[in-house]
Write a structure and sequence with these properties.
CCB1; mainly alpha
């Protein structure tokens, strides 16, 4: 089992929208050959 924790820098000028963060995480998993069939799916 692999566990990943995503930590964002809190000192950014403008906070990132939750949809943007979710997109970045989805992109990470897609680049690492995971397939997400539904955007509401929980990756464990």
């Amino acid at each position: 089992i692999v566990q990943k924790t995503f930590v964002r820098d809190g000192t950014q000028e403008k906070s990132t929208a939750p949809n943007q963060v979710a997109g970045e995480i989805l992109s990470f998993f897609t680049r690492n050959n995971f397939t997400v069939s539904d955007r509401g799916e929980i990756v464990t």
